[in-house]
Amino acid sequence: xxxxxxxxxxxxxxxxxxxxxxxxxxxxxxxxxxxxxxxxxxxxxxxxxxxxxxxxxxxxxxxxxxxxxxxxxxxxxxxxxxxxxxxxxxxxxxxxxxxxxxxxxxxxxxxxxxxxxxxxxxxxxxxxxxxxxxxxxxxxxxxxxxxxxxxxxxxxxxxxxxxxxxxxxxxxxxxxxxxxxxxxxxxxxxxxx
Length: 193
What we know:
Distance between the termini: 36 Å
Largest sheet: 3 strands, antiparallel
Order of helices and strands: HEEHHHEHHEEHH
Strand content: 5-15%
CATH architecture of the largest domain: 2-Layer Sandwich
CATH superfamily of the largest domain: formyl-coa transferase, domain 3
Shape: elongated
CATH topology of the largest domain: formyl-coa transferase, domain 3
CATH class of the largest domain: Alpha Beta
Number of strands: 5
Number of domains: 3
Helix content: 25-40%
Radius of gyration: 26 Å
């Protein structure tokens, strides 16, 4: 097992990124912003993650849509006032549903995404189409939704299947290990398996 040096002995770059909760740390700001209906729906939110590419996009004509003040355009000016920046954006997102906010922000290439409820995840067509969420048939439980294989390779297709029932493959495993049919029957008769 590899031993890691204590934090004090690690390079400063390894200590530079403190945990930041909603601020996500690492110098790439991101925030969960409330949207219209947040008072009754805890999922009425978007994740907004502006980066260097969109700093200029939040100015000029788009200032009416997402009101960033010109003095907060550059990261070194913005980061110390991050909560103020996101409060300004949130004042705007709270006037729109999460899907309306996402549609408008996406028109301007401003990264964001809706916070989806479990029901929304289960019924989202794109997640079904990509195999991110799959339906599996189970002999006792019936059909249920589960997470698909996150790794997609064109030459290595996978099928997500249910977990086996208790003892479902005992016969196959013991046969593969070299046990005869009579040995397996004897183990069953003695309640070993």
